[in-house]
Design a protein that fits this description.
Elements: H1 2-30, E1 32-36, E2 42-48, E3 52-58, E4 61-73, E5 85-97, E6 108-119, E7 123-130, E8 133-157, E9 162-165, E10 167-168, E11 180-183, E12 192-193, E13 197-200, E14 206-212, E15 221-224, E16 229-233, E17 238-243, E18 249-254, E19 259-266, E20 269-275, H2 277-282, H3 285-288, E21 304-307, H4 327-339, E22 344-347, H5 366-375, E23 379-385, H6 386-391, H7 393-403, E24 407-411, H8 418-433, E25 437-440, H9 449-452, E26 456-459, H10 476-479, H11 486-489, E27 501-502, E28 516-517, H12 520-529, E29 534-537, H13 541-546, H14 548-556, E30 563-570, E31 574-581, E32 584-591, E33 596-601, E34 609-617, E35 628-636, E36 640-645, E37 650-656
Parallel strand pairs: 21-22, 21-29, 22-23, 23-24, 24-25, 25-26, 27-28
Antiparallel strand pairs: 1-2, 2-3, 3-4, 4-8, 5-6, 6-7, 7-8, 8-16, 8-19, 8-20, 9-11, 9-13, 10-12, 13-14, 14-20, 15-16, 17-18, 30-31, 31-32, 32-37, 33-36, 34-35, 34-37
């Protein structure tokens, strides 16, 4: 009897213990959610306690540990504090996107798993896991308008990794930075960077931090936080501005909130692209995460190349007229563009008196110039200061449409507070109404606007070749870093094409006779490597005419593509990739100041015989950067193409039937 009673008590004890652990386990599971990438290599876990945190595992290694997510709306308890879950749903997204402007490929596979967590207090959190990264965003469902006071965006890494850190000095910025390479722990407490910024982890893994679908909200920046952590900071809504001249309008006093908005809205995606070097170049996460097309008619949108006047200081020679901002000079540019199948010519600064878009330079007859360009099948793009355009918007855009110009290059915004972010969409929308393409300069990084408004063909937000007019920053190492970081966010108006090229140590910054560092073949290769559906030819028509072989190659390179193949890639060191347009393939390769040899497997070509037009660094390119060798011959898809890149060198090829 005693033994039976003891056995009963022990059984009851174990039942109670089992029930306790089962209940605790069920409670733990109910507060933990996860979503994995389709290939199972990425796992994103979300933990609901008295706050919301997430972690990320990549290839069975935790790379992001508990990182807080929260959004504070004025008059409401912080979204993310003491969350009460009311529903969860996991969905497979599997679709094909056909972009209007195929900057990287004509078909985009949008494949990911999506987890939606719905909470009391009228908000959702949506998480996505792609094969090359993760993203999350808030969705709110409040009645009326809201004021966003703050947002917690955190990235707590497991180790003190190296980072490519585009450091800023203020929120008033063109976001044209070089990348500081340092440890997270070495970032000074009061320093911050624009994005994208890139973390370099062990065994070749890279993590790019950026955002997508940025509308009616400020962009974010990164600053160090705690051990191995990074946190977002935001420019607040502008309260008081100071106009210093026709273009520089700086915020000198901010409101105590980030944004004012409608209560029913999607917030921007917070994005981690997690992949290797090659994956950063081929990733299209930003495009896939962005709002779909908002224009009804897009047939008029025409990508192409542009003969640019400003970089070369309008230095035309061997002519019988005085070059400058006048009709004779621009007719010369138009003739050059027409003869080489270049779609556009830009009229940069000087065609109007600064501050008034209707005060035209007396040496410019715009109606006659547009008529001449139409006869030559060349479109004109007009440079404008953003503030002047804003002040005269309706009248100016109507006039541009009446003249028949093709587009506008909008410059010197230098901000991404909510007001300025809204300005970008305003310009994109109003320009589209008048069938005007847009190039944003003095701009923040791309974050998806181009998908909704494909008339926005490119933007700056990059330290491009223009800096060579006054500085030594545009080195081959800088050029070979951009494809992995800035270009992952979207097209960049770097403006390649210099015909005066220099070796290391021989460069001279010159505003009126600019040059590039690195070889001629590196400049040719940039047309294949750098994505920009509106791609500049920065040098003078006179210089291009002296370099006919180089010009002929540049003129043939498309600005939109059907397919991309990354052949060799290492951030900051080298890039070799191939792109397809129709039945033709182009290969571009560049290196830093180290010479390199590559063997290029051509098995991406369909079986058969081809012709190759190949430009490689000449035998003396290490001493004279303009030295190159052109090889034209037959080639097969079974061949291994061997190429040598000089210091600061490159190679470029066109392969066709």
């Amino acid at each position: 009897m005693t033994i039976l009673k003891k056995s009963f008590h022990l059984s009851l004890f174990f039942v109670l213990i089992f029930t306790f652990y089962e209940t605790a386990s069920a409670q733990t599971l109910s507060n933990t959610f996860s979503v994995t990438s389709p290939d199972k290599n990425i796992e994103l876990s979300i933990f609901l306690t008295d706050e919301i945190n997430y972690e990320v595992i990549y290839n069975n290694n935790k790379i992001i540990e508990l990182s807080k997510i929260a959004l504070t709306i004025r008059g409401h308890e912080t979204l993310g504090t003491n969350p009460t879950l009311i529903d969860s749903k996991t969905t497979l997204i599997d679709e094909i996107i056909k972009p209007v402007v195929a900057e990287k490929s004509s078909s985009i596979e949008n494949l990911c798993n999506e987890l939606t967590l719905s909470f009391e207090r009228n908000f959702d959190l949506v998480f996505r896991a792609y094969n090359d990264g993760i993203a999350y965003r808030f969705i709110t469902n409040f009645d009326g308008d809201i004021i966003v006071e703050s947002e917690d965006v955190n990235f707590n890494f497991m180790s003190d990794h190296s980072i490519y850190f585009p450091e800023e000095v203020s929120f008033f910025s063109h976001q044209e930075r070089v990348y500081k390479y340092l440890k997270i722990s070495e970032i000074e407490e009061d320093k911050f960077s624009s994005i994208p910024a890139m973390i370099e982890m062990d065994e070749g893994t890279k993590v790019l931090i950026t955002e997508a679908d940025l509308y009616n909200y400020p962009g974010f920046y990164l600053t160090p936080k705690g051990n191995n952590g990074l946190s977002a900071i935001f420019p607040h809504y502008p309260l008081k501005e100071e106009k210093r001249n026709d273009r520089d309008v700086e915020v000198i006093e901010y409101e105590d909130y980030l944004a004012k908005s409608t209560g029913e809205r999607n917030f921007p995606w917070r994005v981690l692209i997690i992949t290797d070097d090659a994956g950063l170049i081929s990733s299209q996460m930003i495009y896939k995460l962005s709002s779909p097309l908002k224009l009804e008619n897009t047939e008029w949108i025409k990508p192409g190349k542009v003969a640019w006047d400003w970089w070369n200081s309008l230095n035309i020679y061997g002519v019988d007229f005085k070059s400058g901002v006048n009709n004779e000079t621009y007719k010369h540019f138009i003739d050059f563009a027409s003869a080489n199948n270049i779609e556009y010519v830009i009229l940069d600064e000087g065609w109007y008196k600064l501050g008034d878009l209707f005060n035209i330079n007396p040496d410019i007859d715009m109606e006659a110039l547009v008529k001449y360009s139409e006869e030559k099948n060349v479109g004109l793009i007009l440079w404008v200061v953003w503030k002047t355009l804003y002040d005269q918007m309706e009248e100016a855009l109507d006039q541009f449409e009446k003249w028949g110009v093709a587009g506008i290059k909008v410059d010197f915004m230098q901000r991404d507070d909510q007001w300025m972010v809204e300005y970008y969409e305003l310009i994109a929308r109003e320009a589209a109404k008048r069938k005007l393409i847009v190039d944003f300069h003095g701009a923040y990084k791309p974050s998806g606007l181009r998908r909704a408004y494909p008339n926005v063909l490119t933007r700056e937000g990059v330290r491009g070749l223009e800096w060579s007019k006054w500085s030594e920053f545009i080195t081959p190492e800088h050029c070979v870093t951009l494809p992995f970081i800035r270009m992952a966010a979207g097209p960049m108006d770097f403006t390649p094409g210099a015909m005066l090229n220099t070796t290391e140590g021989n460069f001279l910054a010159s505003h009126s006779r600019p040059m590039s560092q690195g070889t001629r073949c590196q400049q040719l290769a940039l047309y294949v490597i750098y994505e920009s559906p509106l791609q500049m030819l920065c040098d003078s028509p006179s210089n291009y005419r002296k370099e006919k072989e180089s010009l002929d190659f540049i003129a043939k390179v498309p600005t939109v593509w059907d397919e991309i193949k990354v052949l060799h890639a290492k951030v900051g060191d080298y890039v070799v990739l191939a792109r397809r347009s129709g039945d033709e393939w182009y290969i571009g390769g560049i290196t830093d100041w180290s010479e390199r040899d590559f063997e290029l497997n051509l098995d991406f070509l369909p079986k058969g015989d081809y012709k190759i037009d190949l430009f490689i660094d000449g035998i003396n390119a290490d001493k004279y950067a303009g030295d190159y060798k052109r090889i034209q011959r037959k080639i097969t898809s079974d061949e291994i193409l061997k190429v040598h890149l000089a210091p600061g060198g490159g190679m470029a090829a066109r392969i066709y039937k």
